Amino acid sequence: MIIKSIKLHNIRTYLNQEIEFPEGSVLLSGDIGSGKSTILLAIEFALFGISKGILSGEAILRHGKQSGYVELAFALDGKDILIQRNLKRLKDSIRQEEGFIVVNGVKQFCTAEELRARILEMLGYPKELLRKSKGLIYRFTVYTPQEEMKHILFENPQMRLDTLRRVFQVEKYKLVRENTGIVMQALRENKRELSARIEDLPQKQQQSGQLAGDLAAVEKKLLALQPLIEKTGQLLQQKQGSLKLLDEKARQLNSLKSQLGTTGAVISEKKKLILSREAEIFATNKEIALLKSQLQDNSDAVAQLSSGLSRLKAFSDMLLSQIESRKSLEEELLLAEQLKSDVESEISRNEALKLSSQQLQQKISLLDSCPTCLQPVSSGHKHKISSEEQAKVSDLSAKSAAAAVKKAALLQKIKSLKSELSELQSKEKIAAGLSSELKPYLELAAALGASVAAAPRSSELAVAEMQAELKLLSSAKKRLDSAKEKLFIVSEKERLINSSEKSIASLKEETRSLESSLGEISAMISSFGDIDAEVLQLRADIDKVNSEKTQLMVQNASLDKEKESVSSQLKLLSDEIKKKEAAKKELDITNNLNYWLDEMFVSLVAVIEKHVMMKVHREFDVLFRDWFAMLMGTESLAARIDDEFTPVVEADGFEIPVENLSGGEKTSCALAYRLALNTVINNLVSTIRTKDILILDEPTDGFSTEQLDKLRDVLVQLRLPQIILVSHEDRIESFVQHVIRIQKEQHVSRVVA
């Protein structure tokens, strides 16, 4: 992990500040209280957010500001990452708002907890160390606040050892032992439970054997019963088959008896119908004879009809020939009407022109000067124009008089033509009416075979004579209509007689056929014998066999029920025995597992834990000694780590309490412990991805000038890609590659060039 930049907005003493971090050693320089440590806290806040007991929102957000944020840009495993965390002041607290993370240009908005989870995963911190002390690894390997540098030296030895065991991941061995004890206790409880469960296993096995014998006996009885049931079933099936055949014969017999009765009834009905039809034929023949006698007196009416029709038809033809000239008269009338209209138009034009000339004469007589040129008009000129217009008026009056004469002649002609047309229309109506009235008489004549001869075209019959002739025809027609109706009735009755005779013949033939069938049916009925007695006997046999079968089935059902009961008991007992046998196997496994855990595993874990702690202790002790010797630069003082990882300082071979060291010596001891701890943790926890960076906050507190020079050697020895130091010592500027100067004015911190 390499930090590239950080942006602070309303964070402690910073309003708006962006700081670029190069690789190599970087010094944050400035006076005490200028805001150097704020940058380190902002880095921790950007990564992990606020945390109760470690980093609070009140310690981060600038006093009096309602909101603020930190943006941290860093490189990790070849990825460029940008994270922003936001703070908002509420009424009684400060809350973390939604932020975002950008990985290689891909932006994702997250809650504060989601951001923390993403960062912890990216940094590769062990999950078992993240549940309680989320920032423990970071503060032991990357950044330890100034006030916590010496805290570990004076911490309770057991608390310090427990903390280090968690960080070194050695605590898991203790946890394994404790969990193993819990498992062994559960195994012992399980052993007691399993032992109680299998206590009656022999008795259950004995019961299972007895039930198996009972089941075999029942199955033997069922096996012996099956042949009897099958035999009874076959016999019953045979009897039922025979009964089915007899039932079919009985149905056929009943059908024949029913057919016999039906055929007799049909024969009787057909004979009655024959007698009825013969009586109808006799009565109809009498009616026909009467109607034919009534038709003998109609010959004079036929002659009268023929003669009258000849005269009326001749009159009708004459009228029709006269009205054929109507079209020419209509055309002539139309032409006369058109000429009259043209004459009227000519008269109207002449009168209009005459009126115009008269008005012009009047205007000229009153005119003194020309309205166009305004020149005076002379009397001679007025007289000339007036004379010309008077001549026009005289000529137009003559033309109008001639047109009036022509109009009068046309009106007389139109009146004459209309009179002729009116007379022709009257004749046309008469001809049409006569034609309509003649139509039924002509049809009747055709029906009676009467001859209608046309009279000559020149014959003229008066209308009155024609009307009288129509009255005579009407009377003759009534008699002939009555005769025509009687002829139709005679024809219909003769047709009915013919149809009835054919029907009677058909009925007689059907009757003979039915009488023949009646004999055949009687013979078939006699051939069946006494079926009813046979059916009764067979039904009694079936009832007996059914009763035997029922008894056998009841016995079989009882045995089946007994078998089912015994089988169910046996299955339940077998399942119970299987469970108890499984419990016995589980008990054997539990005993073996308990023995292995108690006698082998716990001892092995203790040995492993001891060896791991010895290895960690050796490495830690060597590193601590080396860093202490480098920082102190004297052989009179030496340091080591005891079994509880407590620093022990020796002066000239004698142990002295750490509390008795000077301020600079205490700082050297704490820094040596811190650097050794950093190396051991990074070596032990392979997943950590913060091994490339180290942040030191005022690591030289109380150092002498000679001790400050030793820090140069420490930086060279570390050989890390990025080291960030916070110090107010000007001398350290010569030890590092880059310097970032911080200045505070008016309670606002900023970076100065």
CATH class of one domain: Mainly Alpha
Order of strands in the sheet with the most strands? 2-1-4-5-6-7
Order of helices and strands: EEEHEEEEHHEHHHHHHHHEEEHEHEEE
Gross CATH architecture of one domain? Orthogonal Bundle
Q: What is the beta-strand fraction?
A: 5-15%
Question: What best-fitting shape do the alpha-carbon axes yield?
Answer: flat
Q: Could you report the average pLDDT, rounded to the nearest whole number? A: 80
In whole angstroms, how far apart are the ends? 27 Å
Helices, by number, come to 13
Given the helix and strand composition, which structural class is it?
alpha/beta
Low-confidence stretches: 454-461
Helix content: 55-70%
CATH fold-level topology of one domain? Helix Hairpins
**The CATH fourth-level homologous superfamily of one domain:** Helix hairpin bin
Q: Radius of gyration, Cα only, in angstroms? A: 72 Å
User: Quick one: how many beta strands?
Assistant: 15
Largest sheet: 6 strands, antiparallel
Describe, in plain words, how this protein is organized in 3D.
There is one protein chain. This protein is of the alpha/beta class and 753 residues long. It has a domain at 299-461: Helix hairpin bin (Helix Hairpins), CATH 1.10.287. It contains 13 helices and 15 strands. It has helices at 36-48, 112-123, 136-141, 157-167, 171-197, 201-294, 299-322, 326-366, 379-448, 463-527, 531-632, 663-684, 705-718; strands spanning 2-11, 14-20, 24-29, 67-76, 79-89, 94-103, 106-110, 143-144, 637-641, 647-651, 654-656, 693-697, 722-727, 738-745, 748-752. A six-stranded antiparallel β-sheet has the order 2-1-4-5-6-7, covered by helices on one side. Strands 8-12-13-3-14-15 form a six-stranded mixed β-sheet. Strands 9-10-11 form a three-stranded antiparallel β-sheet. Helix 8 runs antiparallel to helix 9. The longest helix has 102 residues, at 531-632. Residues 454-461 have low confidence and may be disordered.
